[in-house]
Specification:
Helices cover about 30% and strands about 15% of the residues. The protein has 6 helices and 9 strands; from the N terminus they run βββαβααβαβαββαβ. A hairpin with a 2-residue loop joins strand 1 and strand 2. It binds zinc ion.
Length: about 220
């Protein structure tokens, strides 16, 4: 994640979810995802505008790109990389994580990462779930993110909300213990078993709004 200093002692991270206006969860009850192809997209134009603004101010950012967008507009990913920003994953389908099975989540997460890495020609290290939907009932997703090669996650919002959030989650970036590592630690204490520490994941907590490229100024969801 790109970090810039706003003033001495304060670090700020600027991140963007690259998705289109018809894909947000707030419209899910009114817009069937099978109709997405029929909508006129705006995400290309708004991303270009945002890249120009960031360049004018010398700011580097992390762009969590939805796989659906990357597949339809690969030039957006290339433009982000060429502008010197980090490309990270926003999944493939924008389905809430806790509505997917672990197998479905693994498949689409793997496919989206492979697509982005092919377009960016560099490893993708970061992940942010649609609508921040890694909650207490979908913590299993963290293990899959580790196994798929992600190095940090930005999906756990430390607040109370009807769709997302873990209110008592840490509000600063931190290293967290995933469910599999926790269970392996318990096992280790009983049986002296060893297990690779691959289930460590850095959590990048975003405590403010994260505007989407297509809806600058409003919270991504
Ligand atoms: Zn989103």
């Amino acid at each position: 994640m790109a970090v810039v200093s706003a003033k001495a002692g304060v670090k700020n991270a600027f991140t963007v979810d690259v998705e289109d206006y018809f894909q947000v969860e707030g419209f899910a009850s009114a817009i069937d995802r099978r109709s997405w192809e029929g909508f006129r997209t705006r995400v290309g134009g708004s991303t270009s505008l945002l890249l120009d603004i960031l360049a004018a101010h010398g700011v580097h950012a992390t762009f969590f790109v939805l796989g659906w967008v990357a597949r339809k507009h690969p030039e957006i990913v290339r433009q982000i990389v060429a502008s010197g920003h980090e490309v990270a994953s926003h999944g493939m389908s924008h389905r809430l994580i806790y509505t997917q099975t672990p197998e479905e989540f693994r498949r689409e997460t793997h496919d989206a990462k492979a697509l982005l890495e092919d377009l960016a020609q560099k490893p993708v290290a970061g992940y942010r779930a649609a609508t921040y939907s890694i909650t207490r009932r979908s913590l299993w997703a963290l293990d899959i993110l580790c196994e798929e090669g992600f190095r940090y996650d930005s999906s756990i919002f430390p607040m109370r909300h009807d769709r997302y959030g873990i209110p008592d989650a840490e509000s600063e970036p931190h290293v967290l213990t995933t469910p599999a590592e926790a269970s392996s630690s318990n096992f280790r204490s009983r049986c002296c078993a060893t297990r690779a520490r691959r289930f460590r994941l850095r959590a990048a907590v975003i405590s403010g709004c994260s505007p989407t490229a297509s809806r600058a100024g409003r919270c991504a969801s």
